[in-house]
Amino acid sequence: MHLKPVPDPEPPAISGREPSIAELERYATILRIACVRMLAVAKSGHLDSSLSAADIVAALYYKELRHDPSNPDWPERDRFVLCKGHAAPIQYAALAEHGYFPREELMGLRKIGKQLQGHPDMTRTPGVEVSTGSLGQGLSMCVGICLALRLDGLDDTAQVFGVLSDGDCQEGETWEGAAAAAHYKVPNLTAIVDYNHLQTDGTTEEVMDTGDVRAKFEAFGWDAIEIDGHDMEEITEALARSRTLRKPAAIVCQTKKGRGVSFMEGRFGFHGKPPSPEQAEQALEELEARLKEQEERLGRTSEISDDDERE
Amino acid sequence: MPEAKTEPIATRQAYGDALVDLGEAHEDVVALDADLAVSTQSIKFGKKFPERFFNCGAAEANMMSMSCGLAATGKVPYASTFAVFATGRAYDQIRLGIAHNELKARICASHGGVSLGEDGASHQMIEDIALMRVMPKMQVVVPADYNQAYRAVIESYERFEGPMYLRFGRPATPAVYEEIPDTLGDGVDILREGRDISIFACGHMVWRALEAAETLAREDGVEAEVVNVAIIKPLASEAVIESLAKTGVGVTAEEHRVVGGLADAIREAAAEQHPVPIFALGMGDRFGESGTAEACMEYFGLTAAGIAEQAREALLKKPIVSHPPIHGGEWG
Prior knowledge:
heterodimer, A: alpha/beta, five-stranded parallel β-sheet, 11 helices, 7 strands, B: alpha/beta, seven-stranded mixed β-sheet, 13 helices, 40% helix, 18% strand
């Protein structure tokens, strides 16, 4: 099987310099590669659901989130909640890249006795705030976290970012949580909907059309915008903007399931299906080629900026 | 701490009173309700500590997941509503968010059983103890009267960690304890000693069990041991077996289905360690019906007379020789 080691990314910016859009795009590719490798070894899991969220998760972990991998319980930290818990591999990849646990753990995904469960488990994995995996519960959990932060006087400091799926938006509880967030005027909640339009039984339009999700959040009293969930510039701007708002903010991200892997992207039939060895190989070839391109571009960009600095 | 109550009063009143006392003593105590704060009595906490009280409206699933978020962020949430909604509607939310994570969150259900009365089958929850008992890590507490309920709520913060389900009742119920007890102990409390039969009861059936024991002594010359089982899970099985070893036969009494609840907890312990006949009084394979609290209890035979009758039946099956207990198993 074609399982090259994941190229080491640069350590996350610790102070001062923020990663550029191009750098964030490169990180997203690194996370995608890790997901393919994990799923190929696990022979189980949700690859396409992880890939659709890769750009969002990269923007969060490498730029927007205030977190400290050496102190996962830092009280003032921002919270990341993967409401769509089945996309756990993308969060695990980001956590491992940041040193929450050794990268080798990634290859233990979904294996008996190992740390990385099929869905995020707060009792076993550092960096997981709450256990998720039952759709609909995550947003309500986020509201509870926001209220606890308010009681601790931290709601101006710590932002809570929940990443939802379109399946989450089909669950009634999500709208109970949306109502509660608006009712209690939580100022530090960002709900990011990874709206990839595909679910287990077909397209969301066929299975259960969720309609205009952005308009729904707005009707519930939220600030709500819609963006391209694969445009790093739009994602980072929307995340940063949501932190400045004094009300709960929804960012509906139009995404493609399986993004970054040509034969999977936007195609029905891959939900919950691990890639075959051949599929994994093809996916890795495509992603690694993309990574190479991104690094070449970045190399040139870096040279130019270095030159600029010298001048 | 309030005065001990000697007059009949509902256990849910103790919940309201104890919650306020906990709120005064501990800043991390928060309370949630689902538009039943007056019924559950969480309103008392809500009035005193409005910033720490979150009414979730008629949205129980959201309330339980919010409790998970609060507990994961260092608070100790007390979430109350009727037993039917607390357990049935929000099972999955309690299961993943609270029990699986072993969070210190308290699901405080009022109006358990058929004594909820007039609202009828839709609201009369007779499966909650079973649902919470099968859930891994969940502790299940059913206090017998106001005085014990007060202590149970206080100790749910001060003595117990991990997830807990507490069941309270709607109607005023006579005092079983003269004072507010110092502790729940292991949750198995012998209220009346006897050598002939063990009557295990919980909640509203405990005072009825004491009455049944009086009847049996007076009319049948039978000395019944009355055991209040307030902590159904984890069950202090040694205390249960000790009583059964002495008497050789048992009866259980609960305002709940006869499967999954107290009866099965006792029978599971006995089956391995000291198998003797154990008869169960409770709700059969049926739902409740509308009526006043007392009419419902009468209609379904959940009375002192019903317990005495079960005891007489059980005594007919009592083995002539009772065997010594075999210790060594564990029940949880």
